């Protein structure tokens, strides 16, 4: 039986930590960065922990 492909869109947005938690990068850091203040950019660049209810679905997409 062939192995299912992982969801590449999910792998671009979410990373798995060493302990198995899922971190995601928030929005608003893709473009128009020159218009945002450096304080705003620093705050937006932090990774956030994914909600526990979403972790189960995303882990299935990533095959982790």
TrEMBL record:
UniProt key word Ribosomal protein: yes
Molecular function terms from GO: structural constituent of ribosome
Region (Disordered): 1-24
InterPro entries per the UniProt record, alphabetical: Ribosomal_bL35, Ribosomal_bL35-like, Ribosomal_bL35_CS, Ribosomal_bL35_sf
Gene Ontology biological process terms, A to Z: translation
PANTHER family linked: 54S RIBOSOMAL PROTEIN BL35M (PTHR33343), LARGE RIBOSOMAL SUBUNIT PROTEIN BL35M (PTHR33343:SF1)
Protein name, entry field: Large ribosomal subunit protein bL35
Species assigned in the record: Bifidobacterium avesanii
Name of the coding gene: rpmI
């Amino acid at each position: 039986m062939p192995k299912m492909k992982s969801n590449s869109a999910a792998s671009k947005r979410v990373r798995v930590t060493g302990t198995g938690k899922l971190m995601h990068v928030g929005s608003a850091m893709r473009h128009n960065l020159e218009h945002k203040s450096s304080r705003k950019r620093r705050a937006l660049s932090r990774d956030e922990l994914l909600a526990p209810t979403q972790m189960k679905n995303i882990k299935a997409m990533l095959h982790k």
